[in-house]
TrEMBL record:
Organism of provenance: Microbacterium candidum
Name recorded for this polypeptide: Glutamine--fructose-6-phosphate aminotransferase [isomerizing]
Keyword Repeat in annotation: yes
Keywords noted in UniProt: Aminotransferase, Cytoplasm, Glutamine amidotransferase, Repeat, Transferase
Residue ranges annotated for the SIS domain, each copy included: 289-428, 462-607
Gene this protein is translated from: glmS
GO molecular function, one term: glutamine-fructose-6-phosphate transaminase (isomerizing) activity
Principal EC category: transferase
Amino acid sequence: MCGIVGYVGPRQSQSILLSGLARLEYRGYDSAGIAVIDGDGALDMRKRAGKLGVLREDLKGAPMPDGTTGIGHTRWATHGGPTDLNAHPHLADDDKLAVIHNGIIENFAALKADLLSEGYEFRSETDTEVAAVLLGREYREAGGDLGAAFRATVRQLEGAFTLLAVHQDHPGLVVGARRNSPLVIGLGDGENFLGSDVAAFVEHTRNALAIGQDEIVAITPEGVEVTDFDGNPVQPEPFEVTWDAAAAEKGGWPSFMAKEVSEEPEAVANTLRGRIQDGAVVIPELEGLDDLFAGLSRIVIIACGTAAYAGQVGKYALEQWARVPVDVELAHEFRYREPVIGPDTLIVSISQSGETMDTLMAVKYARERGAKTLSICNTQGATIPRESDAVVYTHAGPEVAVASTKAFVAQITAQYLLALHIGRIRGTVSAVEAAEHVRELEAIPGKIQRVLETEQAHIEQLAHWMADTRSVLFLGRNVGYPIALEGALKLKEISYIHAEGFAAGELKHGPIALVEPGQPVFVLVPSPRHSALLHAKVVSNIQEIQARGARVIVVAEEGDAAVLPFADEVLHIPLAGALFEPLLAVVPLHIFAMGLANARGLDVDQPRNLAKSVTVE
Ligand code: M6R
């Protein structure tokens, strides 16, 4: 949450900062601000509540002097509401110093009390201003040594933070630090960048450096220096960004979500790419790491939101192919109940951003207790993979819309590859069976494409008709259950409609009481070819809700005639193996959520109260 960008170099920085913020806006959009050291050596700052557009308009109406050193921030409010005053940057040292922050400084109240008792004053309700004022005090005590002051400041802070600072007496220098919040360096030619993630600078450079936990960075036009909090030099890890700026543009689509749903086939194909050789799964990142899977007695998948639902789907494949018991845990629940884990436990974390604080903390907790950790992640250089023993990247490309779509199908695909990899190591899946599953996986991109081509217009029309709906229910069984949960989450997240997902078998244990005449219910119907029994059970669930007046919208495989008499609407998906159906069945639900939000005139990319990357607990 919160997007951060910093620049030093020969160019005027305002437009670089603003376009970096535009690419980071998915991280938070309550307010935005920039601070620049201008050509006359003075610090100028402008910040406004609201989306970045408000700040842009403000700067257009009343331009601010420009300069070649600057920082910018887009906020998701934690301490203090989304007002102009609480927006970042925050100033200190007689307004010569500007600070921006992502995270939560947990001991801010105690620090603030000390600073108040020393006569310092505050203008905002934020924890960030405490860090700024503290840095101002340390700067004076360090006799104007910004590096020393910064080290002294961060050593006093508790909690999670990425901090960037500029001081007008140090043009050509941006200092930053990180603990439990993200920060990466972009290496340019005679210019350098800092960003919450590479999106901040990918239009200028794809050469990046990852900054580790509890490290400080100073960038100048000439170079980059990284140290620990005590000033000892550290060698940052270089990496090259694998996507270009165009990948993070809308590219003619009405929204990022529309673009990202259209990229679901590609997300699966790219996650498979380079990991299949002669029908066998070969995951280069896991080469030489067989020990991770030796003596495994349990897998625990930890994740939040959509990533957790992907984990619930993955559980079926991991148990079926690798024959290891799998639990799926919400990361924020995991570490507060003394879970039973040890060296025989593999923790598989799933995170698109790789920065979700709840997931990160759960991974750290598990590692400290001796468990092995593997991250499934979509973002290079992110913190969770760096804190894990191994990583399998999903190659879905940058996901900008707050609602996760293409990352979901990529996360399922990566888990299926992992399940086959572990299954082969453990001898629980034969080469022939694995090759059959691989063939199914390889066919998925084409089948998702078919759903997009044949069903999108129908689903959008349905969503349009249902624009005034107040509540939608989703039912699924087996692998369809997490898809029902995902369909409901997506709908509430972007269309603000009450939605619930249920295991269809649970219906008679309570939820059926919600069904009244006209209640829309989506039902995910498993193929009768895989289990006539499961199919029959779902069909009888449909009859039960239809008898009570529900408006039934069925997602069923092409040719499933048994559901037709009981369905008001049928959305078809191509035939696929039982475990592969979720990769297809989720697509109509993503399209529906987007269509309904559009029909209600809502911003599908930036829904209210949310941010893409939840970097606070
Ligand atoms: O970046 P992550 O995958 O760790 O994010 C986890 C959840 O916050 C995320 O999936 C969230 O639920 C999405 N906004 C759902 O669309």
